[in-house]
């Protein structure tokens, strides 16, 4: 990586001395994985941090999501309604579990799954709804609950971007049957790779915890077709230490978000998506997505992306292409453009700007200047 390049994110890292001391304890115990002491400590700390009762740690968010779906015992081949405006992992986890993702459209303000569109895709094969709290915008959890109760559907949330999101002063993980968190290096809170499931039922929590350990109950009994989804001790050590720095990182990102907003909110054709967030939600500070209205801005999102790259600024088009445009899904009836007008529009307009605590003020100003100049040059 070139030192002068500005990437979309940069991970927080534990202090070396503190990490060394945890590594010493791993060397001493010789326990490297299989739910050791550091793993158990992290689990308890996360439960406290999130204010929840049932949580299981995983080696990454994708495996967590797959195990979550498996734990719900959904019939093979049945349909799960989801959003196409997400990372590949969401739709792929559904497919890997032998289920069928059915894409519905999203709400223009929150960019999350649209309840009206969910209803229009429900049929006799529908068994679950998988919503994504994209960029930390909460899905319409109340409306989704009403729909799920009415049609007897399970609800799973992908909260990969929503570790610190709160709705009505409660963690967003309190909604749905299961919520998945990602602790990948690119996330606000990271364990290098890693993830978790949060459950509203102890029974499902117990089952998912067995599933992530090959389905092993004890030395004599293997009760399920499980997989290896365990978080190891080194990942957990990163987690214990990074958790101490999450609030600090979040506050720095808050300041950066304020600078971006003040610099860019009056640039014609630039929409700061977070200006649309409802007042009962608190932000996750995971990404800083803007939308580019080509008519008003003068150039397209793709052109701005290239202008920034020339300046060594590596913004990212999360999420373009849509999952519905991937080779494997593109021929599904629910993938056609007319079914997903809002998702297609936003996927062509979205750009996630570099966003991390160590982003220097002069770099933020450089990014804002490049965005303003591209617009002015088109006048
Ligand atoms: N659901 C949703 C909605 C998700 O967004 C994701 C993951 C998942 C599920 C699955 O969770 P996990 O199984 O990953 O736990 C990245 C991440 O790999 C992925 O975790 C994330 N979403 C997705 C949105 O972004 P890439 O291919 O864009 O990452 P990459 O390697 O290009 O990294 C972006 C930039 O971050 C780099 O240009 C530099 C910086 N970086 C990255 C890494 C990995 C670092 O500075 N250090 C690093 O170690 O996918």
Explain what this protein looks like in three dimensions.
By secondary structure, this protein is of the alpha/beta class. It is 38% helix and 16% strand. Strand 11 and strand 12 (221-222) form a beta hairpin. The radius of gyration is 21 Å and the shape is globular. The chain starts with 5 loop residues before the first strand and ends with a helix. Bound molecules: ligand T4K. Residues 7-11, 60-62, 86-87, 89-90, 132, 158, 160-161, 182, 184-186, 195, 314, 318 line the site of ligand T4K.
Report strand order across the widest sheet.
2-10-9-6-5-3-4
How far the N terminus sits from the C terminus, by CA atoms, comes to: 35 Å
Helix content: 25-40%
Overall number of strands: 17
Average pLDDT reading: 96
Secondary-structure map with pairings?
Layout: E1 6-7, H1 16-29, H2 37-50, E2 54-58, H3 61-71, E3 79-82, H4 88-96, E4 100-103, H5 115-120, E5 126-132, H6 141-151, E6 154-158, E7 166-167, E8 170-171, E9 178-182, E10 195-199, H7 202-211, E11 216-218, E12 221-222, H8 233-243, H9 246-264, E13 270-272, E14 281-282, E15 288-292, H10 294-297, H11 301-310, E16 313-314, H12 341-349, E17 350-353, H13 361-376
Parallel strand pairs: 1-16, 3-4, 3-5, 5-6, 6-9
Antiparallel strand pairs: 2-10, 7-8, 7-14, 9-10, 11-12, 13-15, 15-17
The structure holds ligand T4K.
